[in-house]
Amino acid sequence: MALPLPTSLSPSKVSAFKDCALAFRFSAIDKIPEPPSMPATRGTTVHRALELLFVEAPADRTPQRAQECLRTALEEMSTHEEYVGLELDDAAAADFAATSARMVDRYFTLEDPQSITPIGLELFLTAQLGSLTVRGIIDRLELDQDGELVVTDYKTGRAPSPAQEQSRLGGVHFYSLLCERVLGRIPSRVQLIYLGDQPQVITTVPSEQSTRGVARKLDAIWSAVERACDKEDFRPRRSALCNWCNFKAFCPAFGGDPSQAASLSIRPGPQRALDLAAVDAG
What is the spatial distance between Cα 208 and Cα 214, in angstroms, rounded to a whole number? Predict the structure, then answer.
């Protein structure tokens, strides 16, 4: 019997399928619960702090106000299952807050928020590509001085090496495609803002050609997902990412049995539509 086909793809799920088809199946199709992740939860917190900062009037977007926004974000997260599931003791919680505060401070070394004109924060966009629904959340959509669109994606993980930059920009080009399909305009610039230990901004200029290229790649990935679901053939791909994989115990590449994961699935039935638009905490 064929596996149920996902009805949408997001940048994070496209990346997951390319990294390891089997892990994609466990996460996106079988919906096996995963424990909360410290980096992802910290990313959620920092994203929320910056979202709150940009709700403020431009003159009020100061480093001091940003730290107040972070305290609000930390308070909101304190009862969220994502944070509670980390089971942090007092020392670990203090380190979590301090590391998040450093990331918020680093943001001000990379750009001046008072010069930004945001028109969308944590903006959810969805579009159709044939039978496929593509979805994504843009951290910040703004207008530049010429009235052109700029897409910004915050990243709280490690900055990529020069050789990795183009692959990391793939997700941002995905957002460019969404803007073109939903808003009728291709952004003049898309950028990744890295807030980790090596803060930096990576920028690219999308074009009609690059946007069409993203659409073609998504069509090819979707076809591969369809074939894998039809044949129930999702194969593992060993890489350094295996060291952090939550499904390693079920992976045949490490002596596991994928069928043992079935009892953990929370997928209620083959007709369930999957929402694959979760945030990329970087």
Answer: 10
* Dihedral class, residue 166 (left if φ above 0, else alpha if ψ from -120 to 50, else beta): alpha
Q: What is residue 5's predicted lDDT score, i.e. its pLDDT?
A: 86
Structure tokens that stand for 236 in this block: 């593992």
Contact 100, 70 (CB under 8 A): yes
- E strand or H helix at 202, and its extent? strand 200-204
Residue type at position 176: S
User: According to DSSP H, which parts of the chain are helical?
Assistant: 11-19, 21-24, 38-55, 63-77, 81-84, 90-110, 165-168, 170-183, 208-231
The reply to whether 199 falls in a domain is: yes
Instruction: Output the CA–CA distances (angstroms, integers) from residue 157 to 196, 259, 281, in the order listed.
Output: 6, 33, 8
Contact 45, 77 (CB under 8 A): yes
- Domain-embedded: residue 163: yes
- Asked if the model's pLDDT at residue 192 lies above 50, the reply is yes
The CATH number that applies at residue 138 is 3.90.320.10
pLDDT tens-place string over residues 74-112: 999 999 999 999 999 999 999 999 999 999 999 999 999
Mean pLDDT of the chain: 89
234-246 pLDDT, tens digit each: 999 999 999 999 9
Q: Is 125 a member of any domain?
A: yes
